[in-house]
């Protein structure tokens, strides 16, 4: 259970990290919390020749308000998200989800940046980033660019990150006051990855759904924005027919793999149920 | 790969040694620092047997590189006893409540419970169960482990421990 040999680098600035990544090329990987990468390296499923540890870079941490957005540094850990009153007050869905990720030990080390950059369809945070319409700041040899989370995921472990680029932070528009939210995650045991999960952010007006966004975790090789499902409930009072229509519209875009968490048909079935539960809980929380 | 010279403070004493970049912290502690109380129970960062306390966090030492712990402060099971050598409240609790079942996973359980009680000195049973959810017990169940942590919480808070009615 010892990883293969590699060189370890601990740059002190983003520009040094980019330079190392650019010079060392394909054989180099950024190391954030290490809680996806090191287990893969122990199993020799990943064998990078160079690790660029981002822990030495001050400034990649922290949570701050910037006008109507919340900006979170890539190296902010799940435990730091959970401790943040700014997040608790403005983006409670991040709290709810961070608590469902793994266990306390993993949350002390695992970072939000690593969770969203990893490209693993099983990671929980990417669906939230789609639901909240976050944008990612990517910095590389050609400067910085902002990429919408909704454009970032291209396949399993395949993202918009170009060679030499690192994700430095996430910027999330603050949802309206009184919005309802829920992250419903079916897992086999505490700390497990999702069999199926759904994120919902909505607003209600006069007992009817005024706006709604739904995103799905681990039901495809990328996180999915379920636009037709959301449209199926807008303007309704979330009666049974509307909930079923949303579940069916969401199921239509799911293409999960069959794996130890269940055959694809089962995961699609429970995926629809997660959508219905998340809608109901989000509505019950909206003010 | 060239080895790096690293130092860390473990249980109050300076420990130094050479580590390859790929040396995991758990191996450094066991093999270089000769502190074999921290165990390895899995390949996949799931079991928590290797849990230590590092700079105020519970961390699975099999999922951190030794070089990343350079300059850090660490507590392992060997550092849990009171200064006079008597058992700490958690150790006493595991002994008194028979929380020490197989014993293999116990150091990780105790180190995790140590940080949990620092952060939440009077956890409910549900909070204890969630707090140790990263530590897997495969032998019987968590009943006595939970009781042991409740015993320690009571002792630390200076109140009498009362076993909950079954
Ligand atoms: C037992 C266990 C259970 C888990 N359960 C869950 C779960 O239920 N849900 C869940 O979402 N996750 C789960 N995880 C994964 C955990 O949340 C990881 O911490 C997370 O996926 C990756 O974050 P990290 O900071 O550890 O990144 P790392 O492991 O360090 O990196 C992951 C990948 O992203 C790249 N990367 C990291 N940061 C950047 C950056 N800033 N820029 C560019 N590339 C970057 C790395 O090169 C690597 O390829 C679990 C992990 C364990 C060990
Ligand atoms: S040995 Fe570290 S979690 Fe199992
Ligand atoms: S007490 Fe060690 S596995 Fe249960």
Description:
The complex is a heterodimer of chains A (287) and B (166). Chain A is globular. Chain A is α+β, with helices and mostly antiparallel strands and 287 residues long. Chain A has twelve helices and 14 strands. Chain A has a five-stranded antiparallel sheet. In chain A, strands 11-12-13-14 form a four-stranded antiparallel sheet, sandwiched between helices. In chain A, a hairpin with a 2-residue loop joins strand 12 (196-205) and strand 13. Chain B has 166 residues and is α+β, with helices and mostly antiparallel strands. Chain B has helices at 25-32, 89-96, 106-119, 125-131, 143-157; strands at 4-10, 13-19, 51-54, 57-60, 73-75. Chain B has a five-stranded mixed sheet, sandwiched between helices. In chain B, helix 2 (89-96) crosses helix 5 (143-157). The longest helix of chain B has 15 residues, at 143-157. The model of chain B has no long low-confidence stretch (mean pLDDT 95). Chain A binds chain B through residues 1-8, 34-35, 38-39, 41-43, 51, 53, 55, 79, 102-106, 108-109, 190-191, and chain B through 1, 4, 20-24, 27, 40, 43-46, 48, 51, 57-60, 62-65, 67-68, 112, 116, 130-131, 133-135. The complex binds flavin-adenine dinucleotide and FE2/S2 (inorganic) cluster (2 copies). The site of one FE2/S2 (inorganic) cluster has 11 residues of chain B, from loops.
Brief digest:
The complex is a heterodimer of chains A (287) and B (166). Chain A is α+β, with helices and mostly antiparallel strands and 287 residues long. Chain A has helices at 14-24, 37-42, 78-83, 85-90, 92-100, 104-109, 112-117, 125-131, 149-152, 227-233, 240-253, 264-285, and strands spanning 7-9, 28-31, 50-53, 63-66, 69-73, 135-140, 143-148, 153-155, 158-159, 166-173, 180-186, 196-205, 208-217, 224-225.
